[in-house]
Amino acid sequence: MRMRPGVRQSALAAHIALSVGWVGAVAAYIALDVVAATSNDVQLLRAGYLAMDLVVRFVIVPLALASLLTGLLMGVGTKWGLFRHYWVLISLLLTVVATAVLLAETRTIGRLAEVAADPAATGDSVRALGTTLVHSIGGMAVLLVILVLNVYKPRGLTRYGRRRATQDV
Amino acid sequence: MDEGTPRWVKVFGIVGVVVVLALVVLLLVGGHGPGRHLPGDGTSRVGPPGAHTAPEHG
Hints:
- The structure holds 2 protein chains of 2 kinds.
- By secondary structure, chain A is mainly alpha-helical.
- Chain A is built from 6 helices and no strands.
- The longest helix of chain A is centred in the middle third of the chain and has 36 residues, at 42-77.
- By secondary structure, chain B is mainly α.
- Helices cover 40% and strands 0% of the residues of chain B.
- Chain B is rod-shaped, with a radius of gyration of 21 Å.
């Protein structure tokens, strides 16, 4: 089922806005994560962990899910399909993996924020909470790979795509 | 011609397999995985929320 041109352009605009927003939100999160990794100021650390939790729960997760959903719609509703082109298929797989890791990581960040918000938590225990920097930088790298794939759209039909191409002729 | 798998897909596949293997090794040696950063997971010096000693001043 193909989208009409007007609908397709609106869906594409929404998909780009949500996906680029996801990248920007992760960049903001990395700034907080760097503070969590490097600062010894307990008040700053407490604020940082609470902000990380809010940014993840109310910005990054909704953007990730919305980006995945609009990406699926763009695949299903346009000539590209979801499984015909390698760049679409790889983008989809990377997005699903990134979203799954993000959802698992959300629980960890929630626990870190819980400790940071606990008035009974000592300065040493807040300083010992650690960081999610490896995940956030890794996530950013995956998002940038997806972005590059979506801009360049490198050639290459999957086996399914080749079969469909011969059927469509 | 779109015959066969493009080279860039093969490179992607090799890099992907290497990354997955590296993560599996990290999981097996216990240096990574879900919940590894959680307080009270055995790797952290802190306990669960509320299990702390004196409140911080300042």
